[in-house]
Every structure is written in structure tokens, then in C-alpha cells.
Amino acid sequence: MIEVQEITKSYGxxxxxxxxxxxxxxxxxxxxxxxxxxxxxxxxxxxxNVISGLERPDSGRVLYGEQxxxxxxxxxxxxxxxxxxxxxxxxxxxLPNMNVDKNVKMGADLAGNREYREVIRAVGLGEKLRKxxxxxxxxxxxxxSVARALAKKPAYLFLDEPTxxxxxxxGRQVLDYICKLKxxxxxxxLMVTHNQNIAEMANTxxxxxxxxxxxxxxxxKQKTAYEIGW
Length: 230
What we know:
By secondary structure, the protein is α/β, with parallel strands linked by helices.
């Protein structure tokens, strides 16, 4: 379980700070599929970064079970992310001089996962192991980033606008792969998006506005990637 307590975060000059997160509290159960919705500037990406340990809060606690990762040293926090967290972003961040196999193996090596090619096959790229990022479509590159994140066997998967740079057909395909792999591996998903339709796939929906949570609700029925509007 993830629990955040009274999280605050500001940027800019200490004499004139810009308050981005304003005392947020939230609990996410293990195995949940949660989506954070909000307009640009609502603080949703910053919130995701703080929950995942990419950034530290100015104050408050970020608990994984009993462990407050906000209190860890830099070295301990890096180790925690390595052992527990997977990331997928709008940008693919693939190494252009490495083929599909080697890009995904980078994630797998963090967990000592020698069966990582199963994940590559699961995202439909089993025939493209030797292809380089420049030889792939945008959707295929995003699927490589999905496979790389999951090859390290994370307990928690964080996604920041993972379909933002994809067309509708490819976006649906990537979301479908993520959901199928979630069912197979059982990790917790927390996704930031501005797309209201994608929220219909989630179990828990968290709305943010001006650095605060304005609403949390649960979908009685979760739709598939091919049932939602776009």
C-alpha cells in the first residue's frame, strides 16, 4: 500500500515560491489501477514524481507500507526505486544505439531477470529483437519502453501521459498491453493523464485542481482500451 500524508512541494525562489502541491493526502491499495486526472498546471505530474520517489516533497510523508521514502538518503532512495519502481513516460527515452533486446535487457539486468524476452513477446515485439529505435514506429518504441519498465519486475508502475504522443489506434494498443500485463504480473498502476476517457479503465480515479485533490471515486465497471472513447 502507498500512503501519502500532507505532501507539499514548491519550486522557484525561496522568497517567492510557487506552491505546486498543497497538503495532499492519499492512499492507494496494492494491486490497484489508479488514474490521476487534471488540467495542465494542476500538479498531477509533480505529484506522480513525488509519490514515485523521483522528487522529494518539501514536507509530508510518502509511505510504502511502513517505510517513508521521503526520509531515505539519496543512495537508499535510488536503491528503493531500482528494486520496486517502473516508469513509463510520454517520451520513450530509448538508447538509439541499442536494439530492442538490449534496451529491454537494461531494465531486466536491474532485477537479474533472465527471462525478459517473455515480456518483449508479450508486447508483440518478439520478431523485432534486433531492430533499433530509429527503425520502429512510435507505438513500437513505446511498447519497448513498456517492456523495459516491466522487465525489472516492479511492484509499482508509474506512467506519465504514456499515450500522449501516440495516435488513437496505437494508444489503445499500448494501454491494452499494459492492462494485460498488469493482470499477469499483479503490479500496482498509477497513471497521470488529461484524457477523461482513459480514466474509465481505472479502478480508482483521482482528480486534481490547483495542487490539491478535488475528488476521488471508484469506477463500478472498468472498461477496456477498446471500449473507451478517444
